[in-house]
Amino acid sequence: MAGFILIYVIPFGRTLHYTVVDDTWWERWVGLENFRTLFADPMFLRALRSTAVFSVVGVICLISFSLLLSVGLQKLGRRLAFIKSLLVAPIVLPTAAVVFVWQMLFQGPVMTEFEYLVGMKTAGNFFSVLPIYLLYIWKHTGLNIIILGAAIAAIPSEAREAAILDGAKGFRLFRSVTLPLISPVLTFVVMLSFSNSLKGFRESLLYYSPLSPPDALYTIPFYMDEYFQQFVFSRLTTSSVVFTFLIVLVLLVLYRWENRYNDRIY
Question: What is the pTM of this model?
Answer without folding.
Answer: 0.82
